[in-house]
Amino acid sequence: MSTEEIPNEEDARTRRRRRGDRSRHFDSGRAGCAAQGAPSDAQARDATAASPTLTVRTTRFGKILFAGNGRALYGFTRDRRNGPSQCYGDCAAAWPVYFAKGTLKAGAGVKQSLIGTIRRRDGRRQVTYNGWPLYYYAHEKAGEVKCQNVATHGGTWLVVRPAGTLVR
Fold first, then answer.
1. Which residues, at least 6 apart from 15, have a Cβ–Cβ distance to it below 8 Å?
2. Helices and strands in the chain, H and E counts
3. pTM to 2 decimal places
4. Among positive and negative, which fits the CA dihedral 24, 120, 69, 110?
5. Distance between the two ends of the chain, CA-based, in angstroms?
6. Which residues of 64-101 are buried (b: 16+ CB within 10 A; e: fewer)?
7. Could you tell me if 75 and 166 are in contact, meaning their C-beta atoms sit under 8 angstroms apart?
8. Which of 105, 117, 145, 149 has the most crowded Cβ, counting Cβ within 10 A?
9. pLDDT over 90 for what percent of the chain?
10. Which residue has better confidence, 33 or 122?
11. 166, 114, 132, 135: which is closest to 66 by C-alpha?
């Protein structure tokens, strides 16, 4: 491969600039998990239009919660159980809220009694599990878990066990 074919960060920045991509990027200390600004409109639509059904999958972190659309769900240590969300603005752009639409259903391995909601400032209902408000990571796809134990936006992001505890 010639040196012209090897991409570097400057080339990536140049390509983003040409496309008009003004998203911010900073390294959170975790490969593949950087707060990269707001997700695309399609990503935001996918995150908010997802079925509120919760499921359990086995990952390298053990059994954890996933949304019905297959995306990993996270709790934020800056939030308090049964309290209001502390994630707004840039935080909510990088970590979209798991909004409730319709009836909340427990999949196999999920305790229906631990599923609930809280009201956000805008009046929309955010899904909770054992009192923890739930979020996605904007730059993960279905089945990916890239951002476990990442500290950003004033707290730490942790995946959630079926028992309702955050994985440390």
1. none
2. 3, 8
3. 0.72
4. positive
5. 42
6. bbbbeeebbbbbbeebeeeeebebeeebbbbbbbbbbe
7. yes
8. 145
9. 67
10. 122
11. 135
Quick one: pLDDT at residue 32? 55
Q: Are the C-beta atoms of residues 109 and 55 closer than 8 Å to each other? A: yes
Residue 152 token pair? 């950003």
Query: 113 is written with which tokens?
Result: 């009694």
Distance CA 60, CA 133 (A): 23
Question: Hey, is 64 helix, strand or coil?
Answer: strand
Of residues 117 and 101, more confidence is placed in: 117
User: In which residue are the tokens 């996918």 written?
Assistant: 46
The amino acid at 136: Y
Token pair in block for residue 44: 């935001």
CA distance 164 to 111: 9
Q: From 145, 166, 156, 146, select the one nearest 66 (Cα to Cα).
A: 145
**Residues near 107 by beta carbon (within 8 Å), at least 6 away in sequence:** 53, 54, 55, 56, 68
User: pLDDT-derived band of residue 50, with 50, 70 and 90 as boundaries?
Assistant: very low
Residues 6+ apart with CB under 8 A from 18: none
